[in-house]
Amino acid sequence: MMLYVILEKTPVPGRWEKMATYRLQYAERDLHLGRHYGDRATKLKDTLRNDVLLYSWDDAQRIVAYWQERRDWAQYHVLGHVS
Question: What average pLDDT does the segment 9-17 reach?
């Protein structure tokens, strides 16, 4: 099954990072993607930082669309992960 992580471009040229936790929380809440944060996501353990949340294609696209409406200057990338 293919799951996706949402990346956002940083001010550093050519550098992408996973979307900030608070942004994922706001989007999930406003889009009603579950009762609690991360309900519809799969957690992938990241040894250096926080867990990485993987979403279905539809949920990832909805979250990206949510933030593109609010931050039209920001750039996002949805990266696939085979689980």
Answer: 90
